[in-house]
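Dear support,

I submitted the protein below through the web form. The confirmation email said the job was done, but the results page showed an empty box. After a refresh the structure appeared. I'm attaching both so you can tell me whether what I see now is the final result or a partial one.
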Amino acid sequence: MNHFVSHKMNEMMKSKYIILMMVLLFAGGHTCFSQTNKKRQMPKQKIDKAVKAKNDSTIAATASDTITNAPINSPSKVTDKKQEKKDVKDEEVELSRPYQPTLSEGYKISNSPQIEQAKLEVPKMEYSVTPKAFPTWYDVLPINAAKKKEEKPEPQSGNMVKLGYGNYDNAYGELFLNNTINKDYSIGAHLKHFSSSGQITDYPNSQFSNDLIDVYGKSYMDNETVSGELNYRRNAVNYYGYYYPDSILNGGNNKQVFNLLNAQVDFLSSNIDRTKFSHDINLGFYSLGDNFGSQENGFALNALLKSSLGKGQWLTGNILADYSGFKSDSFGNISSTLIGITPQYAFKQGDLNIGIGFNGQLEDNGKSKAHLYPKIDFSYAFADNSLKFYATFTGETVKNTFKSFATENPFINTQLLALENTNNRKDIYAGIRGSLSNSMSFNLRAGYKDVANMPFYTSYSIGDIPQNKFLVNYDTLQVINGHLELSYQQSEQLRIILSGDYNHYTVTTQPYAWYKPNETINLGMVYNIDKFTIKCDLSFLSDRYANPGFLFINNAPTSIDLKSIVDGNIGVEYHYSKTLSFFVNINNIANSQYELWYLYPVQRFNLLGGFSFAF
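What the results page shows now:
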């Protein structure tokens, strides 16, 4: 409260000073005007005395208020004020110059004050720790293995049956039998039947059938795997390739049946130590007969041996002994023997692999001939093994048999079958393969072959009537080949393979390389989505030329242009459960009736549907 009263008094004193200054200014101005007219002057002593008297009265009043803390409107203060006014009116003051009031400079506080940072000195501390061992008394107790409830493993069986039927009266059946999982052995059987009793338009007797009975087994030992297989195949076809169904040819025996019995046993090293001796020895026997009395028996030994000579060095060898005997009514008994040995020294140095050796072969096909071919292999990997360049220079003698011809072309004339071996005098190719990404790979290759006694299929005629069987003729052939293969695989869901070949043929005596296309393209895809498996393939073969076999006939064509082929197939399988599935296969989607062999068109659009059951 006292502070509030003191503050009010100070405010009143300031008001009094302002009024006094105004009075003095007014009196000074009046005095100056009076002095100018009357020409009078006040002595200096009087001025000083008057100012001093005014100041003393003002100070006394201020001191009285401050000391007594009297109210502002006290009588004493009023008396002083009246006395001050009386003194001003009774005295005249003369000023030599105008009054110039001044205000002293006040203390200013900066808008951006600066705080002086205090320096903090961190004292240096020196200490040491005396280590002392603290004994522990914790004993590690053994942890008992978790016990698993004993469960009998479910039997894993590879038994399955597949049945289907389609247009052209196509019937399909397949059976797989296998033992359950066993670490010591595996045995199984495979039976298959596929036949067509329908007929191709304008081509009667175009039925066919293929049957297979196959039994196989394997025995797994410590360092050896012994496998064996015994199978029987029966393939029946009709020689339906002619234009004259009502002619005398239709009354002949046009049915051909091939009966093939095959047996083989294989001894394979199963150790994974590459420094030890390894081998793969195969012994095989077959017997093939047809519906016209032709018969062929064959026996073959093929052994691949490999031994390490030290770090990054190997010695390999291939031993071949192949004998076959063919019998026909036209040629009698013909025997053929081929013996070969192919040693090679191979070494690996970093990313470089080189193999140097030779291929020596001796053939006896009525005449004995010896052949010696180089065997050189080279490969170099780079770009972190994602790319590999490779090259090979070699040669070999290939044995042509009744079995090999009947497998490739079932419409041959087995009574007029000439058997000669093919001599691949030079086989040179080089390429690069690798990976473009984790899911895509490629293989690009170019090669050259010089082949003697290359077999070609040609037709023949009786007069102007073409026959529906093929003969085999031989010629020398040079071929330049370019091959490209692209593969894309996305886990187990999608896989696509695209391959293509370009061939440039040069034949010595024949006008064309019969039935050999210059360009081939194949596209295959397998796609798994949910419970569906989709398979499709697309094939393209460029124009091929066929020899119709018209000899000594005027104006007869010497070659037939078999137009290019575009064929597409698709198959869809629906997995209803783990054991039951349904499938549909569609072949020749374009419904084109092209000819694989001269006068032998294939079936047009055909559909085959069925189911498979695993048990």
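Response: this is the final, complete result; the empty box was a page-load delay. Helices lie at 2-38, 44-68, 75-90, 402-408.
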